[in-house]
Amino acid sequence: MGEILRFPGQQPHRAPEAPEPLWRELVGREIHRERLQRGERLLDVAQRAGVSVQYLSEVERGRKDPSSEMLQAISGALDLGVGELATRAARPQALALAA
Asked: Which residues form the signal peptide (predicted)?
């Protein structure tokens, strides 16, 4: 293969930094952490929130981007307000764990 030639003044390519986590991943991790801390099963929380176990599992894994109504139902099932959930998900510790 040939040699890569750079334009004059062009900086060498640096390895990309890890991408910032998506909001749904941060929220999902926090929901998962809270559920485990409370010692509850997916089924328990899903039933109280009025969602399927599969849906709650996908939210916890950051695969689903829940609507504000779904977040309210899920956080309410964990005795949290949506604001509290958002605050916890945005705290520096949550961001560090996601990296």
From this structure: none
